[in-house]
Amino acid sequence: MSAVPHRDEPTAGELLADWLTRQTERLAALEAAVRADEPDAVHQMRITSRRLRSTLQAYRPLLTADTAPLVAELRELAAALGVARDAEVLGERLTALARELPEECGPAETADALARWSAEQTELARPQAVAALDGPRFPALLAALRGLAAEPQFTARAERPAARELTRIARREQRRTARRIRTARAAAPGTATEVALHDARKAAKRARYAGEPAGRAARGFVRRMKELQDLLGVHQDAVLACRTLHGLAADGPAFAYGVLYERERVVEAEARAALPGVWRRARKRPQF
User: Fold this and answer.
1) pLDDT per residue over 170-188, tens digit each?
2) Are 286 and 174 in contact (CB under 8 A)?
3) Which residues pair with 63 in a beta bridge?
């Protein structure tokens, strides 16, 4: 028999339904901005789709409905939006770094070359982002999300007091992140470590999003998991920058790209060195 919540405290299901409703309407509201190519619109829609996907994955024990098709659709949407966004962000990062190169590296010429590459990649990828909103799939996704939020088909666990149940879910996601961190620490240097740390970043992001429906009570947990996610994001950005520079070197200012490559390797090493301290803070047990 499920516990009866205090009359002043919402149930876990009530908070989840409210959260799903708000995020779904935000996703819907961003469609026009993405089509109009407004600044940061693609990025915000991608974040919202990831937030919804992570919520459905983390809160699966509260729902009787099969949410796997929704998770898959949200994953595909984020992937379609991500190509243009990743090219834009990487280009901005490398262009800014190029401008700081020493004079013998030709900072202005190198920055111009990287800016042109970024603009070309972003322009090529933009139709893919808009295409993800065309046709019947995006409206069907919104309709399914709205239907789930309006009639969630909850399990008995969803009737429990929100604070206890959401804490339990956050702890589970935190343990999942801990496993990914251990895997990364045990991985062989090089590609294996890079892949494992990227997996840990995704787990930290999912844990962060799992805490968000709890609101103010989860603020500390969300902040700590975001700090971990951001650090691992710095590492992943440097990894991607190195791969890109290696590929561009044959047709560009190879010496300047080589200097940037080495600087990004230093960023990777610094992020890995900072990880133990950041993880010590992030692994603090949540209590909402």
Assistant:
1) 999 999 999 999 999 999 9
2) yes
3) 154
